[in-house]
Amino acid sequence: MMNIGILGSGTVGKALATALINKGHHVLIGTRDPNKLTEWAAEQGELLQIASPTTAARHAELLFHATAGTAALQALEAAGYENFKGKVLIDISNPLDFSQGFPPTLFVKDEDSLAEQIQRAFPEAKVVKSLNTLSADLMLNPTLLNGGDHTIFLSGNDQDAKDQVRAFLQGFGWRDMIDLGDLSTARGTEMFLALWVRLYGSLGKAQFNIKIVQ
């Protein structure tokens, strides 16, 4: 079992933590406002630790980035650049801008991605973009939908890091994982969110995903 850090304490971060704890991993959630998690944390047991972003990043063997896209760089900076050195950072954030209401727009697209911005800001981290194209409850529980027969994607510049993430996610039931290539391919999965939010509006629920048939 691993020490896994989650940077982000919202709905997505808590969903990830619950799934990881259920698999026996020790989870550190890094947050600047631990008080908001007091009641929820008490229900999770001894495998959960609420910590500062710095502590979570320093002691984690594997990191998830689960903050809102608009706060991504600032949240990661709060964890300390030195704490990302050589570590795999699974980036599940999206560059969604809700300032004009719903549906949101994307504050970066086409010629760049949020994942690439994170990699440039933290060059010694091994950023892998994945799990950002589906709802939080499915990320580490794929069998909740269609017996797990649906698709996720991986993007990253470090092949060993992507292989590590692939093996890790297989342990949670993911079978259909497509390696899109280097981190520039994250532009495609981030822009998919423009369609995802419209599907959510049409279907009236978030428990759906796509399946690549070839």
Share of helix, binned: 25-40%
Radius of gyration: 16 Å
Mean pLDDT: 95
- Report the strand count: 10
Structural category:
alpha/beta
Q: How much of the residues is beta strand, in percent?
A: 15-25%
- Strands in their spatial order, largest beta sheet: 3-2-1-4-5-8-9-10
The N- to C-terminal Cα distance equals 35 Å
What is the count of DSSP helices, taking H or I runs of 4+ residues?
9
For the biggest sheet, the summary is: 8 strands, mixed
SSE layout and pairing:
Layout: E1 3-7, H1 11-22, E2 26-30, H2 38-42, E3 48-51, H3 53-59, E4 62-65, H4 72-78, E5 88-91, E6 96-97, E7 105-106, H5 114-121, E8 126-129, H6 136-139, E9 151-156, H7 159-170, E10 176-181, H8 186-191, H9 193-203
Parallel strand pairs: 1-2, 1-4, 2-3, 4-5, 5-8, 9-10
Antiparallel strand pairs: 6-7, 8-9
In short:
By secondary structure, this protein is an alpha/beta fold. It has helices at about 10-20, 40, 55-60, 70-80, 115-120, 135-140, 160-170, 185-190, 195-205, and strands at about 5, 25-30, 50, 60-65, 90, 95, 105, 125-130, 150-155, 175-180. An eight-stranded mixed β-sheet has the order 3-2-1-4-5-8-9-10, with helices on both faces. Strands 6-7 form a two-stranded antiparallel ribbon.
